[in-house]
Design a protein that fits this description.
The protein is of the alpha+beta class. The protein has four helices and eight strands. Strands 1, 2, 3, 4, 5, 6, 7 and 8 form an eight-stranded antiparallel β-sheet that branches. Strand 1 and strand 2 form a beta hairpin. It is globular, with a radius of gyration of 16 Å.
Length: 150
């Protein structure tokens, strides 16, 4: 994995609160949902959602998903963001859940007041297998890609 690219993407992800998660229903209907997220050093993303949300229901039958995090831009030369493809799985209670919660609280301190609601919800782990970094601030059309073999 390209360490320079990973460092750049991690800094970018730390600067933004919301990803757009793309899932697919059993009937093949696409769905995009905005969700708060955190990322660890391996570029694994964590988000919280209710079990009855449409995207959670979609993930219960198809764990492949895509996500995008991007900066607001009003000019093509300002476009910057990351597109990810990968697998999503619930995080069971235990050390990984506790680590995801700790990262979440650091990034979103207000969630401490919602601890009970979050414990009734599900933490999900988005494990990317492909990443595409787009940064027109470097040069128009600038992209870099990474792929994982897991």
């Amino acid at each position: 994995m390209n360490d320079d690219l990973r460092t750049q993407v991690l800094a970018f992800l730390a600067s933004y609160s919301t990803l757009v998660l793309a899932t697919r229903s059993e009937a093949g209907q696409p769905l995009a949902a905005p969700l708060f997220f955190v990322a660890d050093e391996e570029l694994t993303l964590y988000f919280v959602s209710g079990a009855k949300s449409r995207h959670s229901l979609n993930l219960s039958h198809e764990n492949r998903a895509a996500a995008a995090v991007f900066a607001e831009a009003w000019d093509w030369g300002e476009i910057a963001g990351v597109q990810l493809e990968g697998h999503v799985a619930p995080v069971p209670p235990g050390p990984e859940w506790d680590r995801a919660w700790a990262m979440y609280v650091v990034k979103f301190p207000f969630v401490v007041a919602y601890h009970d609601e979050i414990t009734r919800s599900t933490f999900y782990r988005f494990t990317p297998d492909h990443l595409r970094w787009i940064d027109h601030r470097i040069a128009f059309g600038h992209t870099e890609e990474m792929a994982w073999t897991r």
